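Before relying on records like the one below, remember that each one covers exactly one chain. Contacts with other chains, cofactors or solvent are not represented anywhere in the record.
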Amino acid sequence: MEDNSNLLESLLDKAKEYGITSFELAKLRAIEKTTDVASSLVPTSIVLILVITCLLFLNLGVALWLGEVLGKQFYGFFVVAGFYLVLGLVLHYFLNDWVKRIGGDYFVRHILK
């Protein structure tokens, strides 16, 4: 009987160690995935900021040029603002699900890598 209790005790200790090791492994995998996603977002964010800055100055240039062509400076800004209003409405009403799907797929792909 003593032998069976020692065997059971040994088995329980090994199961406990296995559970602790499995938990630590899951924790380390979660940390790895989190750092992978975060590290891929940093260069993407920098590029995005540079593209947005470039587009800002491009839009200012187009607005000023259109204002000169139309005779009043503020007309160019109205035309550029109207263009973005139409573009925003099209994205909102027609491409909203598509944009959500692309963004979701991007994050899932990086998490499951």
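Residues 45 and 51 are 10 Å apart (CA to CA).
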